[in-house]
Fold this sequence. Notes:
Elements: E1 6-16, E2 19-26, E3 31-36, E4 41-45, E5 47-49, E6 52-59, E7 67-74, E8 77-80, E9 91-93, E10 104-109, H1 116-121, H2 127-136, E11 147-150, H3 162-170, H4 186-197, H5 200-208, E12 211-213, H6 228-235, H7 240-259, H8 262-267, H9 269-276, H10 281-294, H11 301-307, E13 313-317, E14 320-325, H12 343-353, E15 359-364, H13 372-385, H14 390-402, H15 412-427, E16 448-453, E17 459-466, E18 475-479, H16 492-497, H17 501-513, E19 521-530, E20 534-541, E21 544-552, E22 558-568
Parallel strand pairs: 10-11, 11-12, 14-15, 15-16, 16-18
Antiparallel strand pairs: 1-2, 2-6, 3-4, 3-7, 5-6, 7-8, 7-9, 10-20, 13-14, 17-18, 17-19, 20-21, 21-22
Helix pairs in contact: 2-5, 4-7, 7-10, 13-14, 13-17
Amino acid sequence: MPSSRLLIGPLLRRVVGTRATVWVETSAPAVVTVRTAGGATGSAPTFSAYDHHYAIVVVAGLAPDSATTYEVLIDDEVAWPVPESGFPPSVIRTRAADDRDQPVSLIFGSCRETTQHATARKLPPDALDAYARRLMADPDPAARPDLLVLLGDQVYADVTSPTVRRLLRRRRRRPKGAPATQVVSFDEYTKLYLESWRDPEIRWLLSTVPSVMIFDDHEVIDDWNTSAWWRADMREQPWWAERIRSGLASYWVYQHLGNLSPDEIAADPVYAKVTAAEDATGVLHEFGDRVDKEADLAHDTERWRAVQYQWSYALDLGRTRLVMLDNRSSRVLESGNRAMLPPGEWSWFLDRAHGVYDHLVVGASLPWLLPPGIHHVETWNERLADSRRPWVASLSERLRRACDLEHWGAFRRSFDALAELFARLGSGTPAGPGARVGAGPAYAPPASISVLSGDVHHSYVARARFADRSVRTPVHQLTCSPIHNQVPAGMRPLMRLGWHPGPAGAARALARSAGVPRSGVRWKKLAGPYFGNAVATLTHRGRSAEVVIEGTTSDGHLRTVARQQLSDRA
């Protein structure tokens, strides 16, 4: 069958103006060509690493404001579309040359175990599968979203399916002490992506809707980079070096490379090295090792800037700016100085957060605004973990790990800094110190600020309220999780209680008793929590913004579980 040479893909990743990027994995070295019905083409040879073969093809010459079908050729032999699939043609859709007045539609979510987990764990229907089937039924390409934003846990290295577990049992050469049911090597990671992205509906969806992604912990391991103590403990494990190296290298290949625009790909130093090497195994091996070690320098701005590889990125669609933040890899974990982003990357974020746009969307795998009761417990725990009394700090560290107390509230400096940034943007005041945009006159605040997140296996909409009453822009937390997973039934009452005023007030008092200062922001739930599998759509029309969260029914369809107007400015 012709498609046998195309192991994974095509994945339509970025559409920028009249260019698009298409990512594939092939079964052998080859030249990959993407050819559209409109005459636009692009070709690239594969690069090889760990006996696997990849290409990212830049298609140039697309017509603005068009939708055109395309095919993928492997050494001049058509490998996509697969005639017998019965699916609609894959399409590359471009926006108008001047798209400032064109609506923007983002679909988002996180936490997707493969459909093979459903048999073993009886998971509810996959929301992304359901979304793909609905798109297939609508022949109008204009009805498709501009971008699919996947917010973490695209694969689970530490919670594998029965199929992957059988493969691991057959592996004879694995590092000493490696968990029997978890992947460790780069090759084992490739099986996770093969299993997940060869799902027929998902394969078609990723071939026709542009996508961007960011990792969370399960791409590596649960609680990844929770604390400095956690890092020290993991480095004592004889299998950990290969796990973290393989996890970061495979993430770069399968997810991050496609996040970049054509110009960013051409400028990426790692891409230059892997494409220049006959065998890029050594390049990616060294890269995975180096990037993990860079996290130890995160607190040192100058040293970190000199060596860092940045996973965070930004892009514009019409009058919408999306900034995706790495919440995991480069955390500052020094006691008393914790931060979600190192100083150098935070400065980069401030630059991207200021600009000319109507809507700011910040993608972060971990919610900025949790249920208040849980948030205050995290701030309390962080304060005790910094105690000078060793037994208090040790007990707090054990609690931090056991209860996954590692969201923005557990990095209070970063939580407050994000609140201050949103308040400044929302009040139209000049940029603050460190933004590197210069002092200047006040500017019109954006129509909306939204934080897209996942991780917590339930979905909700919350609105922030600032002590500064000059903040005019509505600021919302939009959490959609999981796409295909489930939260244990015993956890649901706790998550619901976290929103109730009584428990939240008690947790706030607990935090204050430990010396946690009052925050300049409070928040209120507007919709949810919803505990089923779900996808969400954020739509911007002019200066209005709306989010719709849709959950799966027992027969695998989607139904609206929340609809919230975020901004109704004309």
